[in-house]
Amino acid sequence: MNIPAVGLGTWQGLGVKNKHKDIRDSIIHALRTGYRLLDTAQSYGVEPAVGEAVRESGVPRSEITVATKFPSEWHHDPVQALQISLDALGLDYIDIFLMHWPVAADGDEWSVLPITASPTFVETWKLMEKCVGPRCKAIGVSNFTQKLLDELLAAATIVPVVNQVELHAFNPNLKLVSYCHEKGIRVTSWSTLGGGGEHTPKAKEILTHPLFKRIAANHDCSTGVVALSWAVQRGICVIPKSSSLSRIEENIHLVTLTQAEMKEMNEAHTTISQIRLADHISTLAGERDGEQTIMGWTKKEFGWEDADGNWLT
């Protein structure tokens, strides 16, 4: 499947009320600027605005890749979840339908189930395979590690077309990206720009640290463009969000970094800081038996870290 390298993320709509027109108009602007990939999710609450923008942009539907994600409470019935998204988007089909997290929930998104409880993510994937057809061109996953993908691929008939993960200079996922590419899975990066420091101030340095500012000066561009270009040169799709029309225009015009600059970017997690934003998102955080959890699972269960706390991705 041909997936554009740069898309527009839409999670800026999460929790925002009465912003339908603004979000729709920014998406229309992106499409008319040249974007051909839109990333959204049921939990963002903006699928109606995304679908309306697609219909009103003047860009043929066949040229636009629309990716959306279903939440944890629909792991038991992704076929019905697909219909919910189709109805909200007002589109005849979705290009890429993703399992938002490997974590299932019972009743609502926060009633999370243990990793061994049914439906497991493997059971959900087998149900997702039934979605592929005229209404759903391809399926994929989000927030999966090598550990989880090993288990899924052992039972899968269809290989995920995409694995969407947190990825930025302070969490480059060097091993995970290599693994996915070997398996024929395209990696999509969320929070490539560090999330604007929303969850931890240290992440702001992805846009302000002297290393990244120097590279930006070398190419007469912003540090944001440097971060996006670095990811795309690694074969990764990026989906930066923005409500600024000028920033939307800027983010699609990438530069080519030198091998030395790529090396510096790849090593920034060891020379500057190592950060997993998910560890700092309060709505995801919890604790079990004195151990930190994300969405109810430990970092070891996710496959992010080993028993000694060493990062595995």
From TrEMBL:
EC category name: oxidoreductase
Annotated PROSITE patterns: ALDOKETO_REDUCTASE_1, ALDOKETO_REDUCTASE_2, ALDOKETO_REDUCTASE_3
Keyword Flavoprotein applies: no
Annotated site residues (Lowers pKa of active site Tyr) in this chain: 69
Top-level taxon of the source organism: Eukaryota
Catalytic activity: xylitol + NAD(+) = D-xylose + NADH + H(+); xylitol + NADP(+) = D-xylose + NADPH + H(+)
Gene Ontology terms, MF aspect: oxidoreductase activity, acting on the CH-OH group of donors, NAD or NADP as acceptor
UniProt keyword annotations, A-Z: NADP, Oxidoreductase
Residues reported in the UniProt entry to bind substrate: 100
Residue ranges annotated for the NADP-dependent oxidoreductase domain, each copy included: 6-268
Active site, renumbered: 44
A Pfam family assignment: Aldo_ket_red
InterPro entries: AKR, Aldo/ket_reductase_CS, NAD(P)_OxRdtase_dom_sf, NADP_OxRdtase_dom
CDD domains: AKR_AKR1-5-like (cd19071)
EC number assigned by the record: 1.1.1.307
Function: Catalyzes the initial reaction in the xylose utilization pathway by reducing D-xylose into xylitol. Xylose is a major component of hemicelluloses such as xylan. Most fungi utilize D-xylose via three enzymatic reactions, xylose reductase (XR), xylitol dehydrogenase (XDH), and xylulokinase, to form xylulose 5-phosphate, which enters pentose phosphate pathway.
Protein family: Belongs to the aldo/keto reductase family.
Name of the molecule in the record: D-xylose reductase [NAD(P)H]
Organism: Penicillium malachiteum
